[in-house]
Amino acid sequence: MFLRILRKSLSKRKSRIAIAVISVIMGAAIATALLSVSLDVSEKVGYEFRKYGANLIVVPKSDTIEVGFPGVDFGSVTEQRYINESDLWKIKTIFWRNNVLGFAPILYQVVSVGENQYEQNVVLAGTYFNKDVEIIEPYSLDDPSIFNTGIQKISPWWKVNGNWIEDQNDTTSSMVGIKVAEKLNLEIGNIFTIKYYENYEGLINETIYNLTVKGIIETDGNEDNQIFVNLQVAQDLTSRMDKVHLIQVSALCNACPVDTFAEEIEGKIPYAEARTVKQLVNAEMNILGKIEDMMFLVTIVALLASALGVMTTMTTSVIERQKEIGLMKSVGAEDKKIAFLFLSEASIIGAIGGLVGYIVGTVLAQFIGLSVFDTSITPRVEIIPIALGISVGIALLASSLPVRRATKVEPAIVLRGE
Amino acid sequence: MTKEIIRLTNLTKLYDKDTRPINNVTVSMIKGAWTSIMGPSGSGKTTLLNLIGCLDSPTKGTIHINGTEITKLNRDQLTRFRRENIGLIFQQYHLVPYLTALENVLMAQYYHSIVDESEAIDALKRVGLGHRLKHVPAHLSGGEQQRVCIARALINEPEILLADEPTGNLDQKNGEVVLKLIKKLREEGHTIILVTHNPDIGRLGDRLIELIDGKISSDTAINIKM
After folding, report:
1. pLDDT tens, residue by residue, A112-141
2. CB of B145 within 8 A of CB of B151?
3. Distance separating alpha carbons of residues A362 and A356, to the nearest angstrom
């Protein structure tokens, strides 16, 4: 009988119930959308940040080298130490390996470019552009055994005139910083010669390499003064096989503290030290925090608006149904039964609003994802119980005052004969 | 042998300092009798009925029904007492508009105990509405609505029936049908307290109490069963 009363009472007041349900849908939709975006946004914003370069730099312990990386000063060289290229795969075997978006080793060497009096010293940087690194001992059996990485992956924001070096075995191509290109009048397709002088027990040994300009790089940073080649070229030139000076690592740190990341890498390559690019990480965390705060506030406001909508509807409903309430009481309904009837109505309003709100919110999240982050937001089934819980909770909370009013109805007054 | 079922002692209801709808009323009513309460508008008839029906509480005095001092009961206890002992018949029927005749009766049963549709159908048949079970109030005449109201009052087999101007909104023909029903209920042993403006209806009972300004101005035995 209770269900019959409930069903008929709801269907009798469809338009009023619809207003309450729409209020809940709006609140639940905004909550769902922002929660979905919030769960994805850290990752999305992380990816956005990763476009601006590495946020971790791995160097040999106690090593300092006078070459730059945006925002990081390495000081002067005291003792030349290296990281073994053959250890690079280990970075992809840490616990947070899936958050390692890419890495690029760098081996620097000052070389001479030009002839006679026009000879100039330039920093040559050997690196990976597009390299398949074999993960010798994956962390898990499910992990892929090959990881494609390189400078192109961790610095997609570089402006490149011409092309990237795509072939990892290409030993004749180079990518030249724009300032180097201007000084040496180099254009795409030009061939130029680099010389490396090695002082070996008083004897100067000269090694020469001819390189073709495949692309000209513009970063507004130190890279503009450097020549980039495949790592293998720099190692051959300087006879430092398997050696690199540093590794730039691009790590996505929305779920993990970047310091943990650094510690883990140090655990895998004990003779190396991982440093975080603090400014970048702090800015990232700061922005993420602000976005989440804003979303939280918007959600609260939306839910308050929903609650207000439900409260207005329920209050009107109680006022309109005073005689009905008085009658129920006169035939024996105690206050708790009256409260139960109205709270059941509120729960149904909340549940319908929550479910529809989840669907609308998921669509809204896609819209936000595509328009703001240029990617879709993964629909999350785990949000359904949260959306339902919030909606029913809000509906019940918003109904508490009207229900209290319903229980205070005096049958003797509302059923008066006149 | 008469048995007292209701006893009001020094009963007073104050709405404010100057408004005393019931002023120091002391009266007893016997089981199985039809007591009519009459009086001009504002004399306190409905207030007295509400007090006996546990819908209102007195400011002073006591009410005993079936040996229970109901003035000592709290809100929920009063509700439970009412549903066990009292059936209410209203001048304006007060049916739930979105429920059918049958469902209106079932609702009273639901709030009392367990829903038994056959009992509710019987109650409606008893008031001559066996053919109107599935009709909503808007599709019933005033007399039919009042009969649904009576069936609803009867469904839980209360000992006492309180009727407030039960024919007040009905034409003569429908009014007679309802009064006939009430007479029948009195013959079946229900204690009936009926508030009316109409002296002809008032005299149909066993006893006629007249109220003026919240006090009993006359108390006439018409046909008291001894």
Report:
1. 887 777 788 899 999 999 899 998 888 888
2. no
3. 10
* Residue predicted with more confidence, A261 or A88: A88
Q: Does A411 contact B at CB distance below 8 Å?
A: yes
Contact yes or no for A334 and B79 at CB 8 A: yes
Regarding predicted confidence, which is higher, B119 or A378? B119
Q: Is pLDDT above 70 for A347?
A: yes
Question: What's the pLDDT tens digit per position in B49-70?
Answer: 999 998 888 889 999 998 889 8
- The span from the CA of A124 to the CA of A106, in Å, is 10
- At residue A162, the pLDDT reads 92
A331, B53: Cβ pair inside 8 Å?
no
Of A411, A196, A142, A381, whose CA–CA distance to B83 is shortest? A411
**List of chain A residues whose C-beta atoms are within 8 Å of the C-beta of residue B97:** 12
Residues of A in contact with B56 (CB under 8 A): 410, 412
Query: Whole-angstrom distance between the N-terminal and C-terminal Cα of chain B?
Result: 6
State whether A333 and B82 contact (CB < 8 Å).
no
Boundaries of every domain in chain A? 2-47+287-415, 55-275
- Residues in chain A with CB shorter than 8 Å from the CB of B96 are 5, 324, 327
Per the CB < 8 Å rule, is A1 touching B92? no
The 3-state secondary structure of chain A reads CHHHHHHHHHHHCHHHHHHHHHHHHHHHHHHHHHHHHHHHHHHHHHHHHHCCCCCEEEEECCCCCCCCECCECCCCCCCCCCEEHHHHHHHHHCCCHHHEEEEEEEEEEEEEECCHHHCEEEEEEEECCCEEEECCCCCCCCCCCEEEECHHHHCCCCEEEECCCCCCCCCCEEEEEHHHHHHCCCCCCCEEEEEEEEEECCEEEEEEEEEEEEEEEECCCHHHHEEEEEHHHHHHHHCCCCEECEEEEEECCCCCCHHHHHHHHHHHCCCEEEEECHHHHHHHHHHHHHHHHHHHHHHHHHHHHHHHHHHHHHHHHHHHCHHHHHHHHHCCCCHHHHHHHHHHHHHHHHHHHHHHHHHHHHHHHHHHHHHHHCCCCCCCCCHHHHHHHHHHHHHHHHHHHHHHHHHCCCHHHHCCCC
Minimal Cβ distance to B82: which of A332, A336, A410 = A332
